[in-house]
Amino acid sequence: MATPDQDLAPVLDKDGVRLTVDDTLATVTLTNPAKRNVQSPALWRALAEAGRLLPGSVRVVVLRGEGKSFSAGLDRQMFTPEGIPGEPTFIDLARRDDAGIDATIAEYQEAFTWWRRNDIVSVAAVQGHAIGAGFQLALACDLRVVADDVQFAMRETSLGLVPDLTGTHPLVGLVGYARALEICVTGRSVGAAESVASGLANLAVPAAELDGTVRDLVAALVAAPRDAVVETKALLRGAAGRAYDEQRAAERAAQGRRLRDLAGLGE
What we know:
Blueprint: E1 12-14, E2 17-22, E3 25-30, H1 41-53, E4 60-65, H2 90-94, H3 98-113, E5 121-126, E6 129-131, H4 133-140, E7 143-147, E8 151-153, H5 168-175, H6 177-186, H7 192-198, E9 203-205, H8 210-221, H9 226-239, H10 244-262
């Protein structure tokens, strides 16, 4: 992908993550193309920090990866006995009690949770490989636009692990339980056409058109009034956990807030 964010002074640029902000648009870029944007705890901490650093003006966050791959998943060094210097190895993690394991994984997950905040719409622009943690990072976003060479794969189960970076909930929500189970257990690749047909991706385009398509989508997303977008996103995010009548009530309450605001009668 081209790098339109490089003309802007970065708000954050460390550990393979760059954050730039241009008024209502923030761009988070994975910046280690030589290693196919592999992920590590340091990168996850940087992603979590990027979320905390977003100014209030931001309405849309685009997530992208430099080079031919969006992200090839975990840094393989994490699987070695030596691990990554300064980080716990898998053996170190396994030796902790349940509370210690839970706390460490919860910290890692923070990199994947803020993308669905109601005050922003997040868009993953995905090309090439999005494997394991890369797949889960794309799933963390609200929307996905993919290049025609995309290859999603959830390889954790094949390695004797489980997907634990928040990807299972959105995956089941998008493709259903049976398809999600098959994708995870087989570890197979999901290409562009199937991604769109199954609901994993909103749109697939030739790789050369990915940047332009995302720019057009961003323009459409910021065209609607911000407060209406925030309320609509909150309604849709909560719908799966509500009964039909509860959702009807939530719609009424949200519309009441919007009507009062439009009439200048908001609290």
